[in-house]
């Protein structure tokens, strides 16, 4: 379904930011299900360092919105053990770069327990984390690591590109009985969009959205690059008709929507902020080649972070950070 | 009430039965591993029976435990069925984990057993999490995290205990000090003499008990359980015990000599407990022999069950990954089902 159709189907929408959409999702899920609670560093009284959970502690109290010690392995491990024993924790990892600190509990416990136990436990844990460069936060607070999780068997990963997707995916993650990571790009928290206010609105895991229909080239984008690709598509509208897809769910990945689009346009640009080698881009390109190789009229183009860390100094950061201009150049190269 | 408690004659006899069952299960598993019938690695609990049995004797049936590499003993102490455990060791469909876990990962969450664990120090965070669920839901349980002396050096263990302590969660951390972290003596891994001394850093109780004495272990865990249930948070209980076998079966153990092992065997936890019961007139030598014979037959039956149990169909390799299976896996699952279970086959 196209994103526009999803919004039109919704009876009521409100204009809000991505940050507000995620907060709305968390509030609604806390209200809906008493098994759900939030935990993480400074998510409570402080409201989250990027202010996503602001106001929820005041509304729901200490039991439902829990500040943890600074100990990612400890509280991600505790969230894992709690999920296996009947509650539904939503843990916030302040910056995705800190995931390394807790990776043992993520990859060997959270991801493997259900399988190794022969399916005899559920793992209804959600991990929210922030990604991305653009704030001058330097290498240890700007990483885009979602390929690690999307690559690792036993985990599901989503990465919204719009405010509506942010609400719908967050709610779907909380409701899922599988471990789901929600990767929020910190540079789109202020981005506005129409968001369904229906408390039952969710975006199913594994469904991409066609955000803009076009005929000549498909841009498959994630997170911040969805918005930038839409702007680029608008600016090129007189010359080339660009279809823009928000991937939304990295694992499971909606191969069908992407391949259908490429069958129509014959051209593909993949835009994702993660490092280019061995990652999300490669996976999308591989699937398109498997499904729609004979529909391709031009070489597939990849836009991402060169295999560098995110530098601190603004001109350096701007140099490596992919944006809409890179998408424009890629489109021009193959049309 | 607990399944068994050291406070009644019947319970003490059951505790002895479980200790004997662990010893027989593990020595038999060692034999079948040596014969090549059990794949992978096995890490045996022989010599440490008083710790698992003492701890579980002080727990209620619905309390949780998170275990270690050396998990067979904890499983039996918690009441898991040796037949299904052995089937798991043999990689059979009827094993506790449908043949996907093996020796290092036997688990049965319905019995409160949150898994043996192949990662040193990974169990305590899971126990803290189970204690979080208990606390969140106001349930009347506790969660016990077992860890070895080697795991005390792991960062995530510290984080887990600190979190449980700051939140006053109903958890107990049981350090099984069996003198070796894999092949390195405990003295070379820690500066403190008593590993329970670390409790001071969390401002929680820490005790060191004779881990070859099932009664001493049970009393310490009972106290820790009461403390946890009163809302006063976790306790660290160090049980000083000894690993009779190598780190894993096949370990040639260049790091210790036979004399040391023999010296510890003089304190054998099963002999000590059975002697105590005989001295008290609660058990006769003949009854002990009968018990041993019964248990040998039970483990023999477990072996037969495991040998006769079916291997999993290859398509089972794709089951149990997720509550909701994604198309990425479903395509392999449906292919394997279509192949009718032929081994190997095309990966695409």
UniProtKB/TrEMBL annotation, chain B:
Coiled coil: 278-308
Zinc-finger among keywords: no
UniProt protein name: Thiamine pyrophosphate-dependent dehydrogenase E1 component subunit alpha
Cofactor: thiamine diphosphate
Biological processes, Gene Ontology terms: pyruvate decarboxylation to acetyl-CoA
Residue ranges of domain Dehydrogenase E1 component in the record: 18-314
Gene3D superfamilies: 3.40.50.970
Keyword line: Coiled coil, Oxidoreductase, Thiamine pyrophosphate
InterPro entries for the chain: DH_E1, PDH_E1_Alpha_Subunit, THDP-binding
Superkingdom of origin organism: Archaea
Gene Ontology MF, one: pyruvate dehydrogenase (acetyl-transferring) activity
């Amino acid at each position: 379904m196209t994103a526009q159709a999803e919004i039109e189907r919704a009876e009521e929408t409100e204009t809000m930011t991505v940050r507000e959409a995620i907060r709305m999702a968390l509030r609604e899920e806390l209200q809906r299900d008493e098994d759900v609670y939030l935990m993480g560093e400074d998510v409570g009284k402080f409201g989250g360092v990027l202010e996503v959970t602001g106001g929820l502690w005041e509304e729901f109290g200490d039991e439902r919105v829990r500040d943890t010690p600074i100990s990612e392995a400890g509280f991600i491990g505790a969230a894992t053990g709690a999920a296996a024993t009947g509650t539904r924790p939503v843990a916030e990892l302040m910056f995705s770069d800190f995931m390394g600190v807790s990776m043992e509990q993520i990859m060997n416990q959270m991801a493997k327990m259900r399988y190794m136990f022969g399916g005899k436990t559920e793992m209804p844990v959600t991990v929210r984390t922030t990604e991305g460069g653009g704030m001058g936060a330097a290498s240890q607070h700007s990483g885009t690591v979602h390929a690690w999780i999307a690559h690792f068997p036993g985990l599901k990963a989503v990465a919204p590109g719009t405010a509506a997707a942010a609400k719908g995916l967050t709610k779907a993650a909380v409701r899922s009985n599988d471990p789901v990571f929600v990767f929020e790009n910190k540079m789109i928290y202020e981005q506005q969009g129409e968001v369904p206010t229906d408390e039952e609105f969710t975006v199913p895991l594994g469904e991409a959205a066609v955000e803009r229909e076009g005929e000549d080239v498909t841009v498959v984008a994630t997170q911040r690059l969805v918005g930038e690709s839409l702007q680029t598509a608008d600016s090129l509208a007189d010359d080339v008709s660009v279809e823009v897809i928000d991937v939304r769910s990295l694992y499971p990945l909606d191969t069908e929507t992407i391949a259908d689009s490429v069958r129509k346009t014959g051209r593909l640009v993949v835009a994702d902020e993660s490092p280019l080698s061995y990652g999300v881009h490669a996976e999308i390109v591989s699937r398109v080649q498997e499904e729609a190789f004979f529909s391709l009229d031009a070489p597939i183009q990849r836009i991402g972070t060169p295999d560098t860390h995110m530098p601190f100094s603004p001109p350096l950061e701007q140099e490596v950070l992919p944006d809409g201009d890179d998408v424009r150049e890629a489109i021009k190269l193959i049309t | 009430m607990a399944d068994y408690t050291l406070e009644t004659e019947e319970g003490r006899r059951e505790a002895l039965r479980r200790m004997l069952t662990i010893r027989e299960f593990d020595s038999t598993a060692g034999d079948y591993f040596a014969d090549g019938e059990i794949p992978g690695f096995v890490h045996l609990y022989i010599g440490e029976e008083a710790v698992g049995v003492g701890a579980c004797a002080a727990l209620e049936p619905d309390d949780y435990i998170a275990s270690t590499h050396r998990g067979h003993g904890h499983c039996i102490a918690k009441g898991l069925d040796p037949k299904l455990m052995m089937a798991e060791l043999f990689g059979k469909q009827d094993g506790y984990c449908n043949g996907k876990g093996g020796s290092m990962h036997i688990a049965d969450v319905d019995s409160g057993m949150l898994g043996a664990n192949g990662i040193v120090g990974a169990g305590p965070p899971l126990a803290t999490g189970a204690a979080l669920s208990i606390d969140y839901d106001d349930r009347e349980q506790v969660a016990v995290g077992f860890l070895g002396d080697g795991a005390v050096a792991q960062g995530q263990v510290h984080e887990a205990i600190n979190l449980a302590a700051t939140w006053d969660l109903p958890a107990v951390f049981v350090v099984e000090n069996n003198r070796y972290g894999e092949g390195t003596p405990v003295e070379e891994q820690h500066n403190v003499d008593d590993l329970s001394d670390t409790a001071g850093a969390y401002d929680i109780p820490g005790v060191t008990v004779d881990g070859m004495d099932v009664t001493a272990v049970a009393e310490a865990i009972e106290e820790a359980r009461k403390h946890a249930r009163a809302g006063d948070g976790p306790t660290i209980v160090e049980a000083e015990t000894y690993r009779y076998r190598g780190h894993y079966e096949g370990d040639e153990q260049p790091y210790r000599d036979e004399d040391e092992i023999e010296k510890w065997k003089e304190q054998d936890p099963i002999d000590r407990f059975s002697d105590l019961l005989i001295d008290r007139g609660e058990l006769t030598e003949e009854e002990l022999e009968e018990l041993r014979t019964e248990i040998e037959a039970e483990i023999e039956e477990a072996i037969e069950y495991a040998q006769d149990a079916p291997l999993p169909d290859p398509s089972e390799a794709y089951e149990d990954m997720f509550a909701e299976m994604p198309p990425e896996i479903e395509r392999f699952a449906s292919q394997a089902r279509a192949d009718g279970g032929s081994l190997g086959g095309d990966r695409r």
